[in-house]
């Protein structure tokens, strides 16, 4: 019997898609499982079960700001070739995906929508390989920068950011040390999320035809 599944959800506070791998053993004592957004710390959703077979999930919608309640079972999760998709019925926005890890990741990559307001403002619509992935990577880098976890081996932490179609280039404003971060798919986001810090090294290649973006804006 399979005992673990993956869920992806839109955080009701920051709107970013987060992944959480759930084991039924986390419900020991039949206590509800509370899930917080990895990036902003928001209380995103609660999952309950009484028999470890049938589950109730309560999640606050990122669009209508109203908590939605859904019911699902382990049998539903593992019997199909597609994950369970929970949507806001008023706005037809996908708020949560449940299923086996690979199925959820592949489906989220298909369903991820552009952050239209942000992208339209900057005019990047046709530039990025994956606009949503790029925006998530930028948000993570902003969080790391605020904690001073991005720095150069010259000792400087004044770091500039350059957006390329499929990656982000960080460059030291003092010695021009650099670091390239891929921003093409979900694996690139997860790799960046697991980073404890970023150390820039001396540049050997200078990329051109890119958009500069100040990480402190």
Question: How would you characterize the overall build of this protein?
Answer:
With 217 residues, the chain is of the alpha+beta class. It has 2 domains: 4-111, no CATH class; 116-213, no CATH class. Helices cover 22% and strands 35% of the residues. It is built from 5 helices and 14 strands. The strands form 4 sheets. The protein has a 4-stranded antiparallel sheet. A 4-stranded antiparallel sheet has the order 3-4-5-6. Helix 4 runs parallel beside helix 5 (186-193).
Detail the topology: elements first, then pairings.
Blueprint lengths: L3 E7 L6 E7 L9 E4 L6 E7 L4 E7 L6 E7 H6 L4 E5 L4 E7 L1 H11 L4 H7 L8 H16 L3 E3 L6 E5 L3 E6 L5 E5 L3 H8 L4 E3 L10 E3 L4
Parallel strand pairs: 9-13
Antiparallel strand pairs: 1-2, 1-8, 3-4, 4-5, 5-6, 7-8, 10-11, 10-14, 11-12
Helix pairs in contact: 4-5
Helical run tally: 5
Element-level helix/strand string: EEEEEEHEEHHHEEEEHEE
Overall average residue pLDDT: 78
| Number of extended strands | 14
Domain count, please report it. 2
Mind telling me the C-alpha Rg?
19 Å
Brief rundown of the structure:
By secondary structure, this protein is an alpha+beta fold. It has helices at about 75-80, 100-110, 115-120, 130-145, 185-195, and strands at about 5-10, 15-25, 35, 45-50, 55-60, 65-75, 85-90, 95-100, 150, 160-165, 165-170, 180, 200, 210-215.
